[in-house]
Amino acid sequence: MKRKKYLIVMAGGSGVRMGSSLPKQFLDLGGRSVLHVTIEKFVAAEPDIKEVTVLPETHIPLWKEYCLRKNVAVPQYVVSGGISRFHSVRNGLSKVPDGAIVAIHDGVRPLLSEDMIGRMFAIADDVPALIPVIPSTDTIRALEKTVLPDGSVSFVPVPGASPDRNVLFRVQTPQIFHSELIKKAYMQAYDLSFTDDASVAEKDGIELAFTEGESLNIKITTPADLALARAVISMENTIE
To answer: Mind listing the pLDDT tens digit for each residue in 80-92?
Structure first.
């Protein structure tokens, strides 16, 4: 029997690097918020998906007001985040039953394609953890960053470190798991080595599988990212 599909959307950004008073997940993207566009991509690809939105407690009224104003018809659990992303994901997982497939996705990655979502879910039934990656096309250097007393920044090469970009890949979301396994993994104590859900799963012994991501599946963090996203969405709307 096919596992039911769940989506946890992590929407805890503050917008500091964006230079906006409005959290970046609520910024406009072609007439809808970034978060709204992200959720609709998954619903379009997987209409039966169950959705959990994780937000800082202070942002929940803003999202509820937005959903009413924009008539967001997607049924969803809205969950308060925790003191870190790790704890926020754990809170979201409390709404997901065992025996399901759960995708954990950054709310500010709205540009992934429906094809990518569908392809990943098709694979995820057969693997316990599926992680999208894309090759690193830039030359990589290992440097140690130091802030000097006058506030300037110095970069010093790390001796003996010579990363080979041919074996380096950038990790994206959604990261998709068998729910009972990732829920168990998130019962571990928090560790500073947990940089994403895959690292939490791997430390608990879950075998990771990897699949090709998409170059446009960027995380909107800066004004330049937002400008690119608006251009892509505008082009998509023109094609439609």
So the answer is: 999 999 999 999 9
Tokens of 120: 């990943």
Query: In angstroms, rounded to a whole number, what is the distance separating the alpha carbons of residues 30 and 42?
Result: 17
Confidence band (pLDDT; 50, 70, 90) for 161?
confident
Cα 168 from Cα 132, distance rounded (Å):
13
Beta-carbon contacts of 2 under 8 Å, excluding residues fewer than 6 positions away, are 125
Name the token pair of 71. 């008539």
92 CB neighbour count, 10 Å cutoff: 25
| Count of CB atoms situated within 10 Å of the CB of 188 | 13
Work out the pLDDT band at 240, boundaries 50, 70, 90.
Answer: low
Q: What is the pLDDT of residue 237?
A: 75
Residue 133's region, left for phi above 0, alpha for psi from -120 to 50, else beta, is: beta
Q: Are strands 76-80 and 50-55 parallel, antiparallel or unpaired?
A: parallel
Question: From CA 120, how far away is CA 11, in angstroms rounded?
Answer: 21
User: 221: number of CA atoms within 13 Å, CB side?
Assistant: 4
Instruction: Give the predicted TM-score (pTM) of the model.
Output: 0.92
